[in-house]
Amino acid sequence: MSQPTPITTGSHFQRPTGMPIHKYDRYEQVDIPDRTWPEQRVTKAPRWLSTDLRDGNQALIDPMSPARKREMFDLLVRMGYKEIEVGFPSSGQTDFDFVRSIIESDAIPEDVTISVLTQAREELIERTVESVKGAHRATVHLYNATAPVWREVVFRGSRDQVRQIAVDGTRLVMEYADKLLDERTTFGYQYSPEIFTDTELDFALEVCEGVMDVWGPREGREIILNLPATVERSTPSTHADRFEWMSRNLSRREYVCLSVHPHNDRGTAVAAAELALMAGADRIEGCLFGQGERTGNVDLVTLGMNLFSQGVDPQIDFSDIDEIRRTAEYCNRMEVHPRHPYAGDLVYTAFSGSHQDAIKKGFEAMEAKAAAAGRTVDEITWAVPYLPIDPKDVGRSYEAVIRVNSQSGKGGISYVLKNDHNLDLPRRMQIEFSKIIQAKTDAEGGEVTPGAIWDVFRDEYLPNPANPWGRVQLRAGQTTTDKDGVDTLTARADVDGAPTVLTGAGNGPISAFFAALQSIGIDARLLDYQEHTMSEGASAQAASYIECAIDGAVLWGIGIDANTTRASLKAVVSAVNRAARQGA
């Protein structure tokens, strides 16, 4: 019997593409044969600076309103960030006013240092220093570009001229700080040689030394030297080499806070930041979920959770990661990807049957090991296949998405509902409903058919006129809007079987309905809202999906109606009635 021909080493079929690779130079490696960073480990949290309100905000299609900025600032404070870059106050009145507002409203805790960015021009420096008057703790962050292309093409200046910009700018910051600030403010200084990753190392060092000569770092007088990968240009290992070289060669190193500011152009910003810490960096600047210009700043959430997963306290609280994500999505008006590390909708979800089985066995083994040791599962080392952390440590849970038999076509609950019933459930609702189906299959065994999925869905989420369930049955509703844009809703409903008129006001029909529900003791809060049409044409039905927090529980509801407002109100009722049924 003949045998198949084995694949031999090197027998691949990749071919040159003809892409214009001649246009690009390789990054310059660092001559540091005795590098020490590969032997280091990160065993404690670095200093963190969030630049969501500055670098993150400037990259948004729709920059944050003052209200959204305040929401982001308050979130960062609650999470535990002690250094927050709050704006670029010389760039316009909006940023200046926001900085003044958080100072004058006493919104900044005394242990939080705000940072403000400025270019090295006198009128901008004066305006920047003026913005932080009265702050408890404030840092002025001055930058100028130092890389050859910027020197030659953008500024058309020599190395000496570029160095002098940084030196003169530092002197002006000191002069205006002495002139405009008083003893109420603990004042600090940060300098960034922008485009550090493309700047010759000897010149970056020369500029930083010139800046330090003016600032005079010493005991009790720190300087922050921030070395930004404004454009990520090399491997993380070369980035680490550059940091080790700078850390070795800077004078007055004990008075320098060496800061890393990676961008994600090559997709390796997290690794670049982690290796820079190993190479001597003291501080990381970034944004929640990697917000920022182009491909984004380094992701502070992933960095912090990477430390947590290695048993190192990040000193930032990620215990309610869904609330962090929801707030960031509201402020940035950009969604976090469902596969985003630690925070995405799908990262604690297994679709594969073999993965589900391994995870199930892992949980069982953890429980058995803990019981044998006379301890709880939380007191032993985490070891579950496919789950690098315990999801409940960040307020999440493991979800197994049930695969349906071949009658569903492609398989999957969401596919059945979308394909057969034109319902495109939001991802978190898919996960919620999959748990309900999981309970059914666990109790009854066997596979679940598409018809059975629809029966369970209708019973769980949709009203049954023949056999009403839940506290509230909505009969009719009407809204009016006054000249100030406030909506008043009057709804006729049966509440606990009794005819009731519900009235409430808010900044839209849904908000008004939540206010009306308060009058009958239902405490509900909107978390997410999505809708879509179920078909084409003037008579098309709309499906509305609403995620609510109701008396401490988070639940989804769905409403279907030709009128989108009625569909939304029905979705609220669906969630409210489900909460009542679960609490019964």
Short description:
38% of the residues lie in helices and 19% in strands. By secondary structure, it is an alpha/beta fold.
Commentary on this structure:
The strands form 4 sheets. The chain has an 8-stranded parallel sheet. A 3-stranded antiparallel sheet has the order 11-12-13. A 3-stranded antiparallel sheet has the order 14-15-16. The chain has helices spanning 52-58, 66-79, 93-104, 122-131, 148-155, 159-180, 201-215, 236-249, 269-278, 300-309, 321-332, 353-373, 413-421, 427-444, 450-461, 509-518, 564-583; strands at residues 47-50, 83-87, 113-118, 137-145, 186-194, 223-229, 256-262, 283-286, 349-350, 399-400, 472-481, 487-495, 498-506, 524-533, 542-550, 553-561. The longest helix is centred in the N-terminal third of the chain and has 22 residues, at 159-180. The protein has 17 helices and 16 strands. Helix content is 38%, strand content 19%. With 584 residues, it is of the alpha/beta class. Helix 8 packs parallel to helix 9 (269-278) and helix 16 (509-518) packs parallel to helix 17 (564-583).
